[in-house]
Specification:
There is one protein chain. It is built from 13 helices and no strands. It is mostly helical and 222 residues long. It has three domains: 43 residues; 54 residues, Orthogonal Bundle (Arc Repressor Mutant, subunit A), CATH 1.10.10.60; 90 residues, no CATH class. α7 crosses α8, α9 packs antiparallel against α10 and α12 crosses α13. The chain binds a DNA duplex (21 and 21 nucleotides) through α3 and α6.
DNA sequence: AACATGGTCAACCGCTAGTTA
DNA sequence: ATAACTAGCGGTTGACCATGT
């Protein structure tokens, strides 16, 4: 499979965007949309590659972008989701309307990672002491009203996670479903307790086991 | 005032998955 | 089936700015 050539042709501009370029790109997309990023710069009259245009639009020019500092609630959501999803920035961004994966990634590396390093046990102890708090805060849905019974099996949990995190894209859930099925088939191999009875305990078990066998878990998520 | 250092964030790079011919 | 291509993702870089010495 050949690698797509990008920005290799001489004459294409790189580096920071000027207000004029922003204006041209915004006007073009408002008028014609962005069905084909590769063709767009030529059609719009920009000396940029399609990739650069796409990034500029998604991370900066899109009208629904929320500017300004992250709220404590947003930061908490990022921390919680990162515990579950790892570095799946686009999946985390899907849970935070108006925030981009790039922005979340930057915030994580510049602020949140350090904060967690200072207090490494905060999240796990929060889960352990008050397991329902994480789920209800991050999903804005009270645990009691989740579409799960306290006796839900892991497959039921898996099937209902799309309702709990509706904005996360479909591909993630198909991956997750596959992994969860494998887990259910061989609980003992991964060291999970098959008597785990509900969502909170399921995640708690998973986090605790991740602490002891992170390699196995990383393999599962990769 | 001048320089060093560290933090922030926009943008780029390289890879993969999905689509099309 | 497979080669060519595009879109999207996560990691990394580098310019800029603030702060410390």
């Amino acid at each position: 499979m050949g690698r797509a050539p990008c920005c290799e042709k001489m004459g294409l501009k790189k580096g920071p965007w000027t207000p004029e370029e922003d204006q041209i790109l915004t006007n073009y997309i408002r008028k014609y949309g962005h069905a084909n990023w590769r063709a767009l710069p030529k059609l719009a009259g920009l000396l940029r590659c399609g990739k650069s245009c796409r990034l500029r639009w998604i991370n900066y020019l899109r009208p629904d972008i929320k500017r300004g500092n992250f709220t404590p609630e947003e930061e908490e959501t990022i921390i919680n989701l990162h515990q579950i999803l790892g570095n799946r920035w686009s999946a985390i961004a899907a849970k935070l309307p108006g925030r981009t994966d790039n922005e979340i990634k930057n915030v994580w590396h510049t602020h949140l990672k350090k904060r967690l390093k200072q207090k490494p046990n905060t999240i796990i102890s929060q889960i352990k002491n008050e397991p329902s708090s994480l789920t209800s805060k991050s999903s804005e849905t009270p645990t009691s009203s989740l579409p799960l019974s306290p006796q839900a099996s892991s497959s039921e949990i898996t099937n209902n996670m799309e309702d709990i995190f509706p904005e996360i894209d479909q591909s993630f859930w198909s991956d997750f479903s596959e992994i969860s099925n494998e887990l259910e088939q061989d609980y003992s191999y991964y060291g999970l307790d098959s008597s785990v009875s509900g969502l909170d305990e399921f995640w708690y078990e998973l986090f605790i086991r991740a602490g002891n066998g992170q390699d196995q878990l990383q393999q599962l998520w990769s």
